[in-house]
From TrEMBL:
The chain crosses the membrane at residues 31-49, 85-105, 112-129, 166-190, 210-235, 277-295, 304-323, 329-351, 372-391, 411-433, 453-478, 498-521, 568-590, 605-624, 631-649, 655-677, 689-707, 748-766. Residues 687-767 form the MrpA C-terminal/MbhE domain. It comes from the Bacteria. GO terms for cellular component: plasma membrane. This is Multicomponent Na+:H+ antiporter subunit A. Pfam families: MbhD, MbhE, Proton_antipo_M, Proton_antipo_N. It comes from Rhizobium lentis. GO terms for molecular function: antiporter activity.
Amino acid sequence: MADVTALTFLALCLPLAGALAAPFVIRILGANGAWLLAAAPLFAFLHFLRLLPQIARGQIVTGGYAWVPSYQLSFSWFLDGLSLAFALLITGIGTLIVLYAGAYLRGHKDQGRFFSFIFLFMGAMLGIVVADSFLMFFIFWELTSITSFLLIGFDHEREAARRAALQALVVTGGGGLCLLAGLLILWNMSGVTQMSQLIGLGDMLRESPFYLAALILVLGGAFTKSAQFPFHFWLPNAMEAPTPVSAYLHSATMVKAGVYLLMRLNPVMGATSAWEILLPFFGGLTLVVGTALAIRQTDLKLKLAYTTVSSLGLLVMLIGFGSDHAVEAATLYLVAHSLFKGALFMVAGIIDHETGTRDITRLGGLRRAMPLTWIIALAAAFSMAGLPPFFGFLAKEEIYTALAGGDIRAITFTAIAVFGNALMLAVAFAVALKPFLGRPEQMPKAVHEAPVLLWLGPAVLAILGLLSAIFASFTHAALSSPIAAAIRGTPVEISISLAPHIGLPLALSLLTVLLGIGVYWQLDRARFWIAVFLRAAGGGPDHGFDLAMVGLVRFAGRLIRFVQPGRLEIYVACTFLCLAAILIIPPILYGELPHLPAWPTDVRLYEWAVFLIAAFGLAAVLVARDRLTAIVSLGIQGFAVAVIFLLFGAPDLSFTQFMVETLSVVILALVMTRLRLSPDDRRSPGRRLLHGALALACGLGFSLLLLRATQGPFNDALTQFFNAYSKSIAHGANVVNVIIVDFRGTDTLGEIAVVAVTGLAILALIRIRAGSERKLAANDPDAVGAGE
């Protein structure tokens, strides 16, 4: 077990190590460094593959390290069928993506930076799927948003890339805040902070009055990350990223994070009316919208991106449908989609890399120049279309088995699935056939077959899509059934194979094929009518995002102009208003007002004299006609307070007060003299009255606080502590000095730093004023005399 824990920790850290090493490796080895860098995800993949038999037998692998045990916070992981499958997809496809990127970005000046970003992204996604603690899960969740921002905006010199990156960050980051609130509610509801402990508390969570609030917040995080309608718009715009990013993003990583979260929480939050209404509704709507928008596109990557949106909608719909067959269908489609979508995106990248264009209307006749790429594209398209003998066929058959039924709900979602799958078939063959058939077109570049590193990745994924269906029994035993068991929360055995399935699912499959062929045959007309409908519908969520961002910026600008008008007087008044409210309102609300003491009768004459001096200083401040007089008068009060400290037996404090008041008066007088600020007070009588009321309120608040503090029982624990340890620990006989210098050393250092910074600011003001006077004297000698 210790060996597994250490190796798992190493596997999680390898992508981060790759991110650090990538710039140096690429600088030394160039594009060939991709072979060395691919060893990091390959080792992680082999480690997780080694755990496959153990997980297939129903065991769970956990481990980690305690971080803050008192708050149940830990860096821990949890590997069951679901998390292990995602870990294998992330590291396995990640290995192929690293090799693919080595050839795709060969010669790019920022290839090292790109590999650093992709490894960080890989590590963040891997952290999500293996995380056990809520905190670890959320940290990695947000890291995927940040790293995807870096990858989408990799070509940051283009405005479209910057906009797409910002859009993805805003949408998924906002969803992350919702998820954080949802996780906190789950923590409050269950009292646990780990996924492994949460799984057994489903009944308690579903019966909680906070269930709906937690569900909506969790769905906010999942729907934004997995691009469910109406948050789907950021995902196609993310195609501004280089193709290796698109292939990785859509096949195995970020966009499936939301799906993973819903699958993970299905045992504890599923099987409720809210779950089975919200997920199928938004998933089905996303499926329809995504496939319709995919038909409209002519860019290969955009067509595939919108079908990813629709596929994510299909997965969410199946997760929410609630039946055993729906869970099995979601499991099969999850694996099938990862294989065929990663392959097709890399094929689209090959076409773009070798021809110079991704526009399907400009492509044609590539089968002779790129026969291997065409075969790979056909194999992946067959799986995406749900045709035998590929794994996508098994997924589609299981989908229809799960959805088909006689009630209106089953009929509705079956029709949605048939419609969506038919359009996906049309898109799949548009990508696999349109660029390769027909007469050769004039291309921006001389067309030839791609180098091995470009076709290796899609070829491996296409072959896996074939072999996993042919050896379905092994695939199910090792991978599919453990995934479904983790999603369902109970043991599941999937048995579907390539054997003929006579019945309604097969009939629906045939109907899907016929409809898909019809749409493909009339693809241009379908694209035209969808474009007409979208123009009539007006701006969609993408345009709405732009309007929202413009409105947010305008609102922020007006709010800042309101709360920060640039006048120090307003800032100070607001500060004292808040201070007075804090000091006065809570004692009134909680009945903590002090009892007014009796008027003192033992005040000596000289003490009255000191109080009168302080009152005289206050009166002098109020009637002063210029600031310099007010500053000197304010010093009178400070000296009076210092004398009071001296009379009551605190000579050290009195000396400190004398020094502070003396320096304050000198420095402020110096500043006022050098700056020559306006001597008159231009405040209106109403504003003077307001400021006077604020001053009285703050004084009243501090008086009430001091009275209440002195009327309570005195706790001399600190006094005894400092008296006992000042000499023995700090080696000082003066307790006050020891407290300031040793026990409060850091605080005192901070105060010194503040005073030093203030002094530097004052010096800068004086020098600026002196410099401006010299300039004015040099330009107009008479102006200086006039100013004085």
